[in-house]
Amino acid sequence: MVKIEIITIGDEILIGQIVDTNSAWMAVELNKTGFELAQITSVHDDENHIIESLNLALQRADVVLFTGGIGPTKDDITKQTLCKYFDTKLVFNEDVYRNIESILINRSQAINELTKLQALVPENCTVIQNLVGTAPVTWFEKDGKVIVSMPGVPNEMKHVMSTEVIPRLQKHFKTPSIIHKTMIVQGYPESALALKIADWENALPENIHLAYLPNYGIVKLRLSGSSDDVLSLEFAINQQIDRLSEILGNAIVAYEDIPLEKLIGDVLAAKGKTLATAESCTGGFIAHKITSVPGSSQYFKGSIVAYSNEVKVNVLNVLAHDIEQYGAVSKEVVEQMAVNVRKLLKTDVAIATSGIAGPDGGTAEKPVGTVWIAISSEKETISREFHYGTVRLQNIERITQTALLMLNEIS
Amino acid sequence: MVKIEIITIGDEILIGQIVDTNSAWMAVELNKTGFELAQITSVHDDENHIIESLNLALQRADVVLFTGGIGPTKDDITKQTLCKYFDTKLVFNEDVYRNIESILINRSQAINELTKLQALVPENCTVIQNLVGTAPVTWFEKDGKVIVSMPGVPNEMKHVMSTEVIPRLQKHFKTPSIIHKTMIVQGYPESALALKIADWENALPENIHLAYLPNYGIVKLRLSGSSDDVLSLEFAINQQIDRLSEILGNAIVAYEDIPLEKLIGDVLAAKGKTLATAESCTGGFIAHKITSVPGSSQYFKGSIVAYSNEVKVNVLNVLAHDIEQYGAVSKEVVEQMAVNVRKLLKTDVAIATSGIAGPDGGTAEKPVGTVWIAISSEKETISREFHYGTVRLQNIERITQTALLMLNEIS
Questions:
Q1: What are the angstrom distances between the C-alpha of B233 and each of B24, B175, B178, B228?
Q2: Which neighbouring-strand residues pair with A39?
Q3: Which helix (H) or strand (E) holds A92?
Q4: Does the beta carbon of A252 lie under 8 angstroms from any beta carbon of chain B?
Q5: Number of H helices, E strands in chain A
Q6: What does the pLDDT look like over A154-171, one tens digit per residue?
Q7: b vs e for B214-237, b when ≥16 Cβ sit within 10 Å of the residue's Cβ?
Q8: By the 8 A CB rule, do B54 and B84 touch?
Q9: Any CB–CB contact under 8 A between A331 and chain B?
Q10: Which residues 146-185 of chain A have a CB within 8 Å of chain B?
Q11: In this structure, what DSSP letter does residue B217 have?
C-alpha cells in the first residue's frame, strides 16, 4: 500500500490558534482512494525543522504532502526551504502570474509587490495551478517518491487535492481499494462488547481489521480492509457483518457511521413522527444536537428549557406540589415534563431531563450527577434514573447522548 | 524554554474519523503556562512506529506527551509499548483498581475482565489517577526528560492535563513565571483594531508580547511576558493595559479571558436580573451556552425553542398574521418572540433569534445566513439583521455569539 505522510507547516496549529481540520479531511479522502495515511506531523515555520521532518518522512513514506507556509508574507518559508532541499532556484512563472491576476480581479484587489512574489516557483518542479487562490501547488519527484506542497487555506487545499493532487497520485501509483464499514452498537460498554464478540473477533480474516470507537454509551465498530479485488473484499466484510449481526442483534442500531441525532431524525422522518424536548439540566443541549442536523424542522417542533422550577410549573404545568414533595430531580417531575411538553407542543414523542449537572448542587440523597430522563409517547411514558460524574459539560453531553439512546431504543 | 512534543496515537485521526481537537487545546494550555509546543505527531497503534516517534521526539524535546491508545481493548497498545520501551513490566495497582470501581459504580456498570486490565500499570512509572475515567495517566522520566501517557478521550485528557500534568511539569522544570493578561474587545474587526492601537503596540517593551485572537465579532488581545521577577513584570503589563484602556475605552468589555456567557452571567447576577431566550434558528444553543456556566440558575430561567412556526404561535403567542405577512425571519416576528418570552417566563431581559441556518432553505430575498436577533427588556426592544454564510454549525455559533454580544452591549 502506498504510504503517505502529511506535514503541516505553521505556528497557528502549534500555538492552538486553529484546529487542524485539514488533516482529517485529507485523511478521509486519502483512505477512500486507497492510500494509507501513515503519519501527520505539525511543525513551525522553521527551515531546519521542515527539512528534518521531510527527510524522516521520506524514509518511511512514498509521498509527503505539505500544507501551509506558502503565503506571501515574511513568516512563510516553505517554498524557499524546498528550493534549498532540491538544490534549485525560484523562477518567474507566467501562467501562475496570470492566475494570480485573475484571482485578484475577482476579489477586487490590485496586484502588489507581495502578491507578485507568489508567481515565483522552484525551477525543477511541476507547477499545478491553484484556481481558487494565489499560491500555486508544487510537485517534486525524488528517487521514485513524490513531494507536494499545497496551500493551508482549507478551501484551497480541498480544491487542489480533489481536482489535481489525488488524481495525479492515483495515476502515479497503482492503488488498491480500501473498504471501511462502521456499525453503531448500543447497550454494551466497550469491554463487555469486546468479551461478547471475542470469538468472532479472533476469527476475523487477516486482511480485515477491527477497531472499537467508544463514545458515551455507544461503541462504533469499524471493519477495514484493503485489497486489489474490491468485490471479494466487500463480500468478505459483509459476511463478517452478517455474523456479527447474528451475535448482537438489535444492539446494532446502525450499519453506517452517522451521528445519533441524525439516526434518530431519519427514523422520525421515516415514520412521520414529531419530537419535542423539555430540558432542565441539559439546558437546551438536546434541542441543539437535534437541530444541528439539516432538515430537522421536518420532525422537531421545539423545546421548553425549564431551567427554573417556576418555568416547570408555569409553562410546563408540572404540579408545584410534586416538585415540593419529590424534588425537581425525580421520576414524578420528569415524567410530567415529558408528557406535558408533548401535549403543549403537540408532538408524537417527547424527551425530558432533570438532573444535577454539577459541579455543585448535590445532596447526600441526590449527589451531583443524578439525573432522571423520561421518554413519552401517546402509548407510554418511561423514565430512568442515571448517575454520572461531577464534570458539568461532560454530564450535559452524556445525559444528552443517553436521552437520545433511550428515545432510539423505545420509539 | 522547555520544549514539548505531542504524539497522538490511534487510527481515528489518521483515517479522518475524528478531528484532532485535543492538540489545539493542549497547545493553548501549554503556551499559556510557559512551555513551547515544538511538534505534533499523529501515528497509528503500531509498536515500531510509536517507539520510533518517541525516540525522535526525545532527541528534540524535553517532554513528550502521548494521548490515546490506552483503552482496554486489543487495538490499544500504548501501555504495552511503553513497558517495552522502558524495559519494565505491568503490575496491578490497587489505587487504580479502586478508582475504576468507583467510576464504574457511578456509571452503573460492573467491573469485568477487560476493565480490570486498566488497573495494570508499568512498574517503574509514577501513576497519576484519572478521576474522570478508567485509564490512568502514567509519567516516566529518562535522562532528565519526561514522558507522559494520557487518555485520548477529550474531557479526560483535559481534566488530567489541567489538574495534574501541567502543574507537575511546571514544578519539574521550574519554568519562569509567565504572565498572560487578556482583554476582550468588542466592535472592531481585527485589522481595524490593529490600526487603532498601532502606536501603542509599536511602543510595547521588548519582553511583552501581544497576540490578536479574533473570534466571531470579538478580538481577544493577549499580553504575555516571562520573567524571573514576576512583580515588576506584572507592574509593566498592568501599565500597558492602563494605556490601552485609555485608547479603547468601553470597547474593552472584559479584562480577563472568560467566555462571553460567563461575562454576561456575572453582569446579570451582579445586577440581580434574570434572562430567558426564545430561539428558532439557534435551536437551543444560546440556552446551552448560558447553562454551561455553573450557577447559571441564579439568573437564567429558561428558553422556548420555537423551531416550528406552530410553537411560535401557540406557545410564544407570535401573531400568525405577522408570520404570514413578514415571514418567520423578520423584525416583527423576532421582536414578538423576545417580548413574549420575557413576559411568559417573567424575566427582566430576553434574547430571541430567527434565521436561516442553512445549508438550504434560503430564498432570493432572504438567503441562507440571514438572521434577525432581538433583545428585549422592560425599557426597550431592539432588533438587528445580520448576514452570515451557509455552513450550518458555524452559523449557529456565530448567531449565538452575536446575540450574547448584543445583550452585553445593550444591558
A1: 27, 15, 9, 9
A2: A5, B43
A3: strand A90-92
A4: no
A5: 17, 17
A6: 889 999 999 999 999 999
A7: beebbbebbbbbbbeeeeebeebb
A8: no
A9: no
A10: 180
A11: T
Q: Enumerate residue ranges in chain B where pLDDT < 70.
A: none
Amino acid letter, A136? P
Q: In whole angstroms, what is the distance from residue B38 CA to residue A43 CA?
A: 7
What pLDDT score was predicted for residue B182?
92
Give how far B195 is from chain A: nearest CA, Å: 18
Other C-beta atoms lying within 10 Å of the C-beta of residue B100: 24
pLDDT in tens, A252-283: 999 998 999 999 999 999 999 999 999 999 99
The grid coordinates listed for A231 are: 468485490
**What is the spatial distance between Cα B130 and Cα B102, in angstroms, rounded to a whole number?**
12
Please check whether residue B195 touches A, CB under 8 A: no
Locate all alpha helices (DSSP H) within A277-391, ordered by sequence.
285-291, 309-314, 320-326, 331-344
The CA distance from A354 to A373, in Å, is: 7
The pTM score is 0.79
Residue of B nearest to A30 (CA): B15
Q: Is the dihedral angle over the CA atoms B54, B58, B61, B64 positive or is it negative?
A: positive
pLDDT digits (tens, 9 = 90+) for A107-154: 777 788 778 889 999 999 999 999 988 899 999 999 999 999 999 988
Which domains are seen in chain A, by residue range? Answer: 3-172 (3.40.980.10), 177-254 (3.30.70.2860), 260-410 (3.90.950.20)
| Dihedral angle of Cα A335, A341, A343, A348, to the nearest 10 degrees | -90
Distances (CA, A) of B12 to A34, A207, B348: 16, 18, 47
Max Cα separation, chain B? Answer: 77
